[in-house]
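Hi support team,

I submitted a single chain yesterday and got back a structure, but I'm not sure I'm reading the token output correctly. Could someone confirm the output below corresponds to the sequence I sent? I've pasted both exactly as they appear in my results page.

Thanks,
R.
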Amino acid sequence: MDNYIYHYPTLYPGTLIRRYKRFFAEVELESGEIVTAHCPNTGPMTGVYIPGNPVMLSLSDNPNRKLPYTWELIQLTDNQPTWVGVNTALPNKIIKLALEKYLFPELGTYTNIRPEVVYGADKKSRIDFLISNTDSQKSIYLEVKNTTWTDKNLALFPDTETTRGQKHLRELMALLPKFRAVMLYFINREDCTEFAPGDRADPKYGALLRQAYQLGLEVLPCRFAISPKGIRYLGLATLKLGE
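Hi R., thanks for writing in. Yes, this is the structure output for that exact sequence:
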């Protein structure tokens, strides 16, 4: 039985040479050709950006693209080889597919899924998904955060200071208790069984997450298995919020 939520298009293996100017990755393909691929990840990629490691690229058929290749995956080769998702545009797409398949029983029943809905005091933020039902149940505001930084089997977010992420937590707290608010961490690798805030990178974010959790924020650290074939949902990691 195929239990993949998402299947990658044809991927092309290579070796990472370097990442530069945030959006560019130089890769040597198996043929020996060196190409510049688009890097769809603006973060520091702590613990994931490792020149010399195997990577997988997708190839666009759009003739107008300046960079036809996109960096999709990197393989970490310490201990058990693990594929990690690089493309940060994918998690929201995957979560939408998962919501449509009702893969998260923690959310209960719902009939409507609306992406990118304006909210917040200044109406300048967009929640990733607004989930609602036709009856009187509370609407659910759900935010998605991509997670690749780890300490052994512990997934951590964030891997750098994020004032934007802090703002999202404050806005979600402001919704409580009138609405349900959910922070979903997309753990973009399968070798993590636990999740905690990345206090070393952003202690303020960690403090805000704990405060929000005490006020009723629901936290779903979702584990995903990543491979060149596609992406599968593995269930929830254990949440670790202790100081």
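A quick pointer for reading it: The radius of gyration is 18 Å. Let us know if anything else looks off.

Best,
Support desk
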